Structure formats: structure tokens, C-alpha cells
Amino acid sequence: MPLPTPFHPRTSALCTSLRWKEWAGYHAVCSYGVHHDPEYYAVRHSAGLLDVSPLHKLRVRGPDAAAFLSYVTARDISRLKLGQVGYGCWCDDDGKLLDDGTVTRWDDQDFRLTSADPCWGWLNRHTQGFDVRIDDVSTELAALALQGPRAREILTAVCGGELAELRFFRAARARCANFDIEVTRTGYTGDLGYELWVAPDHALALWDALMEAGAPHAMLPLGLDALDVTRIEAGFILAGVDYTSARRALIPARKSSPFEVGLGWTVQTERELFLGQAALVAERSKGSAWSLVGLEIDWDELEALYDSFGLPPSLCSMAWRDAVPVYLDDGRQVGQATSGTWSPTLKQNLALASVRTPHAKPGARLKLEVTVEYQRRKVTATIVPTPFFDPPRKRGKAPADNVPATDAPIDTAPATPPTHGDPS
Questions:
Q1: Are 146 and 49 in contact (CB under 8 A)?
Q2: Is 80 exposed, middle or buried (CB count within 10 Å of its CB: 0-12, 13-18, 19+)?
């Protein structure tokens, strides 16, 4: 049975939809209201507050902590500066992806690693020869993601103006009221955002302070349904959806390398020995069999297809995760779209797809399988660059711009195209 997070007394009171799911053994809100639209628009126009406490959190300490993390991950963690956060991945001996996550460097011998899957046991199997200690601190830290163009203003109202200068993928410790928190300028929405880490005893006080500061900005609590839309717009992959961990793959063909899922930029091969290095060096040299691409699905073709059945166009009102085949014009399957959504901000029908590399060139037109009235059909999908949505405010230091005034109403138009289809 799932456990409550330290924020559960607040999230459960606000979740009028009663829609929950299990995330890493904890209760997690799908959407607070009957639909996630208001939460999505809050993130893109103001701010949203998401409970991310279920993330697995490990503390890695010791004289060899940097060397150890550089050995088990595909990124050279020793290059991280104090107070810097690094995004990366870790692989098996064959260079196949196990998981991805972030590493925060607090000092020369103290790091925090976060991941979607538990990895304490796997890490400890590789500690021989390293003077390092690994502690699972998942239950010792509650966490919130404060995301959206007004996130900086809300955070500084609670924790002081010093955090206004916190740079992208940097970390700091701060005082909030009468307790300490850790802040990283990170997130999973592709927008300006922060993640806040606090002792469970102070979790509710932090939630209350942020919600009070966010009220003038129309901030809303954020559920996982809206988060899924934002992460696809940002081009962010999701473990178990856009790739299968090598430890869970039932056959070799289900495994992927970092290069095949768009994480090649995190792989640093010219350095000391690390897990999977030989395989990754070889793949970087010869090229990858698969590539992660963005797809823009042709709306006119989709509308015409529905019209041929006498129906108005209908799309799922939520992001989808059921993989569908992708073809060439001659009918050969060359990949699969793994997740997709209608983007309310971009007004486009988008998807992430794994495509055989020879056919993964930007601008290439493929065919995506869709089902209408229980019949499988195909519509054109064009390969486009990712991220689909990448506002300057995500990385910038300047105050957010192109944002409605705080007293302006938030646009709450449907997140799906204006059709007469069933939104369920």
C-alpha cells in the first residue's frame, strides 16, 4: 500500500478530484481538480507547486566520492564545481542505460544523487577500492518543485532575495522562517524553476509559506498529469516510457544507450575508466542504430482522417504513453512514438519517438499510426528539433518577461484542441 509523503496533509485536502497514483511507493496526485488544464496553465503563466518527495535520494560522501561517482556514471562528476548540479546517466558494462538523474556537489567530499529508480544496492556493489559511504536519505528529505515564470518571485518572497541570483543548475542552502532548506535551480517542466529540499518535520511549514507567497500570483498545486504535458513540451524523456532500463529489459533489443535516447551530450568518454566506457567509445565512433526525435503531427491530415469517418477530430485530453509505430511512406516500420501530447502553448500535436538513425533527419516526413473507430490509419508526422518549448527564462538570470501581470486572469482554455470530441 502506498505511503503518504510529508506533504500529504496538504495535498490530500486540496485534491478534490480524488485522482491519485503510486509513485515509488508513495501517494502522488494525478490532478487536483477534475482536469489538469488549470494546473498546466499555472505553470506556463504563473507557477505550480509539485510534491517530488518520492524521488530516490542518496548521499555519497568520502575522500573518493567524486572519483566513485565519475566511475559509476557516464559523466565526469569530478568536474562539478561546489554548488553545481550535474545531470547525467549511468550504464551497465555494455553501455546500456540503467537510469538518469542529477548529482549535486555540496563540497569536495559530499554529493547528493537523485534518481527515479532505487540504486543504493547497485552503487554499493561498485564501491570496492573507493573510500566512500553511500546513505539512502530518501525518507530524510521532503522535496517540492516550484516551477513557472513567477517561481523566482515566490521563492525570494519566502527565502530572501539572495536566491534571485541562483544560476541554472546551481545549488544553495538557505534559511526559510526558522528552518533550513536546500535549493537547486532544476526541474522537469522546461520552465524557470527550482526544487526545494527540506527535513520532513518542516515540510508543511515550507508548503504553507510557498502557497501563501504564491497566492497573489495565482499559483496552483501541480499534479503529475500536467507535469507530463510540460515535460513532453520540454523534450524530456521518462524512464519506463521513452526508454526501458537495461535492468528491466526482457530482451536485448529493448535496451538503449545514452546516445539513442538523446543523452549523448552527458557522456564524457575522454577520462579515467568508468562503467560502460569501452562500449560507449565504440558507439560514439561508429554511430548509433537509433535516435530520439521530436515529431509534429500534421493536424490537417488528422482532421481529414476523422472527417472521413464522419467524426470531428478527437484527441486524448491528457499526454499519452502508449507507444505507436512510425513508418516510411512505403510501409516499412522505422520506429515508434513513445509519448505525446497536444501542446496548449505551442498549439501543436507533438510526440517523442525512437527512430532508426538513417531516417531520423530533421524535416523528414514519416507516417504515424493512429486508431479511429477501431481502425488503424496513418498520418504524416514531421521530424522537428527538441525541445519543442524552451523559453529564455529557464536559464536566464533576468526577471521573467512575456508573462501576464500578476493581477491578470490566467488563461484557462482547454489544453486540447477546440473540438467536440470526448475529452476523457
A1: yes
A2: buried
Helix (H) or strand (E) holding 39: helix 37-45
- Gap between the Cα atoms of 83 and 119, Å rounded: 23
CA distance linking residue 212 with residue 215, whole number of Å: 5
Q: Could you tell me if 34 and 227 are in contact, meaning their C-beta atoms sit under 8 angstroms apart?
A: no
Buried b (16+ CB within 10 A) or exposed e, 43-61: bbbbbbbbbbbbbbbbbbb
AA letter at 402: N
CATH topology of domain 289-390: Elongation Factor Tu (Ef-tu); domain 3 (2.40.30)
Distance between CA atoms of residues 418 and 78, nearest Å: 50
Q: Among all chains, which residue has been given the C-alpha cell 501517494? A: 27
Position 415 pLDDT exceeds 80: no
CA distance 210 to 146: 9
pLDDT value for 183: 98
Backbone phi and psi for residue 181, each to the nearest 5 degrees, phi listed first: -135, 165
HSE, CB side, 13 Å, CA atoms: give it for residue 287.
7
Confidence of residue 396 (pLDDT cuts 50, 70, 90): confident
Q: Which of 22-26, 111-115, 409-413 has the lowest mean pLDDT?
A: 409-413
Give the C-alpha separation, 336 to 359, whole Å.
12
For the entire predicted model, the pTM comes to 0.92
Q: 277: which residues sit within 8 A by CB, 6+ positions away?
A: 95, 269
Is the pLDDT confidence value at 112 over 50?
Answer: yes
Q: What is the pLDDT of residue 399?
A: 54
What is the domain partition of the chain in residue ranges?
Answer: 289-390
